[in-house]
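Let's practice the habit of predicting before peeking. Look at the sequence and jot down your guess about where helices and strands might fall. Then scroll down.
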Amino acid sequence: MGTGLRLPAVVALTSVLAACSGATGVSGTGAGQSPTPAPSVSAASTDAVPSPSVASFAFPSRTAQLAMSEPVRFQTGSAVLAGRLFGHGRTGIVLSHMGPQGNDQTAWWPMAALLARHGYVVLTYDYPGICPGGVAGCSSGRLNSDVTPDVDSALEFLRSQGAEQVVLGGASIGAMGSIDVASRRSDVAALVSVSGVEFAGPYDLDRGVLRHVTCPKLFVAGTFDREAADSARDWNRWAGPPKEAHILRTGLHGTDMLSASGDDAFVPGALVRLLLSFLRRHLPARPS
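Done guessing? Here is the structure:
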């Protein structure tokens, strides 16, 4: 299951098309830094453990996020998608958001900025018909629960920007579209699913699909997000190595994990630590 990493157990999810909103110990540090580990259990554990109170993890500020990124646009079918490109490098990461309705790319900006500080080039974007406006822009086209073509187009766009290896990461429906694309393409360098589920909308991500995902895989979900937690466990059983699953003691879903507070304050730092550890082992940042 895991690769020998030792870190806190993690365990949350609600609806795939509309996000909802515990705990393991990981302390936050300064913006752009990795959180300090807390008492640990095995890397691929599906058992949650009690956690102490922790400080919230500090992501780069919105001002910093905008300063280290630029607006971009790219085509998917007949629609033109609004996106934002963070950082520089030859190892790229696509981050696909929850939703589609009621969510947009800005939920991923804190993580995208942090990953850019660690040497990755990161693309966030809005699905067709999503229009937060302002610095986030607007995507043309119509809302659609099938985001696979959008994930595919985002991967191609990031390659056109010089990324030689591309990681597909997504939250909720974005995770499901990323898994679908990874099962169809051999050039996906790694896969990250945050609160994806097996069955929703056009997706039926069963054992047969997961067996076709040959790249390194990271599955993260919350304990009290039952459908997502069960899906992460199933996918980790069905998929071939390299793979790991982490169930966080929380009820938060997808990118809601990035803005957690109170009893869930440990969650952002835990998610950052899991993601950075996974990337450093499988897809280290490569400068341009």
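How did you do? Residues 266-282 form the longest helix (17 residues).
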